[in-house]
Amino acid sequence: MNFHEYQAKKLFADYGIAVPAGRIARTPEEAVEAAKTIPGDLWVVKAQIHAGGRGKAGGVKLAKNFDEVKQYAAAMLGTRMATYQTAGVELPIDTVLVSEGTDIDKELYLSVLVDRGTQSVTFIASAEGGMDIEQVAAEKPEAIKTINVNYVEGLRPYQCRALGFDLGLNAKQANQLAKIMLGLFKLFHEKDLALVELNPLAILTNGNLAVLDGKVDSDDNAAFRHPDLVAMRDIRQEDETEVKASQHDLNYVTMDGNIGCMVNGAGLAMATMDVIKLEGGEPANFLDVGGGATKERVTEAFKLILSSDKVKAIFVNIFGGIVRCDMIAEGIIAAVKEVDVKVPVIVRLEGTNVEAGKELLKNSGLAITPADDINDGARKAVAAVAGK
Fold it and tell me: Binding residues for Mg(2+), per the UniProt record (predicted)?
């Protein structure tokens, strides 16, 4: 689950990490009132969407007076914004964050994530932060510094200070960095997060470090332990179909193709999409109905797939291990009838009671095309889309 910048900064503050003064607003008038509570004569008006790159897209503006605060807020609120991170999708701007303006001397980058390669929580940092950190990583990998945290020892202050000196910080700044990193490490563990990113972590002209922007992602598998984080969820920032899928405990991700996929098991779902691509097709979605696929879940899965008018065929690829193939077949037949599917449906079944399942599909009287294996199913799905 993703969070807005203002929510991320609230979490930072709760863990002793200093952030610039700021308040959210949902109307231009509220933006002006927010600015009046923040000392100084320079304010930053920032669109709140679940994406980075807002500055390049016009979602970050410096205001020198209250009229400009109102003007910029009015131009953002109620509109939609796409950045290089949204893959062409425009996200709604319902809220802006009005923050204290700061004088920046240098921008750094700092993030925390789980590195599966080293099986550790890892800090990634660079002295070349800002909006183009991805480009820095690609073109100057030597500028990227990492710390793999020992699971037993945890993060030690000396590691943080050493990283600070590697980034060119002085002793005072290195100590400030250590405080920030230790707070982030505690936050990361206690809230079961998947990613924390500070970009930029800035050196101000007064020499102090300041967290000017932050991104936080949590681990959905731990949501039941953190109702406070769940309460921060903004479903308007998420794909509508994916939200509906989560309500039925279905793992669904929207993609750009025209072949709908319904599979049980994440690994098999990934393999199914790969084979469709190899056969020259394009998957319309990732959809894992889970090991306990029932008639109701299969029906909802068909509804989700067909909610996109791009879908021209559906490939159902089920391995009946926990659930018998004949039960899956009954669910598919019932779902096709209830949803009134109008596009070709190709079904590959394998596993327990597979012959009984195939016989049910054969005698259903429905336009369901059987497949012998995953490759055969992918070929038939691609051919159905092509009208062959």
Answer: 199, 213
- Look at the domain 21-101 and name its fold: Dna Ligase; domain 1 (3.30.1490)
According to CATH, the superfamily of the domain at 239-386 is: Succinyl-CoA synthetase domains (3.40.50.261)
Q: What is the 3-state secondary structure (H, E, C) of the chain?
A: CECCHHHHHHHHHHCCCCCCCEEEECCHHHHHHHHHCCCCCCEEEEECCCCCCCCCCCCEEEECCHHHHHHHHHHHCCCEECCCCCCCCCEECCCEEEEECCCEEEEEEEEEEEECCCCEEEEEEECCCCCCHHHHHHHCHHHEEEEECCCCCCCCHHHHHHHHHHCCCCHHHHHHHHHHHHHHHHHHHHCCEEEEEEEEEEEECCCCEEECCEEEEECHHHHHHCHHHHCCCCHHHCCHHHHHHHHCCCEEEECCCCEEEEECCHHHHHHHHHHHHHCCCCECEEEECCCCCCHHHHHHHHHHHHCCCCCCEEEEEEEECCCCHHHHHHHHHHHHHHHCCCCCEEEEEEECCHHHHHHHHHCCCCCEEECCCHHHHHHHHHHHHHCC
Tell me the pLDDT tens digit for each residue of 139-170.
888 989 999 999 899 999 999 999 999 999 99
User: Active site residue: 5, 30, 72, 109, which one?
Assistant: 109
Show binding-site residues for ATP: 46, 53-55, 102, 107
Taking only the tens place, the pLDDT of each residue in 26-80 is 999 999 999 999 999 999 999 999 998 898 899 999 999 999 999 999 999 999 9
Domain boundaries, the chain: 1-20+103-238, 21-101, 239-386
Catalytic residue among 5, 128, 197, 300: 197
**Active site annotation includes 6:** no
Rounded to two decimals, the pTM is 0.79
Q: Any catalytic annotation for residue 300?
A: no
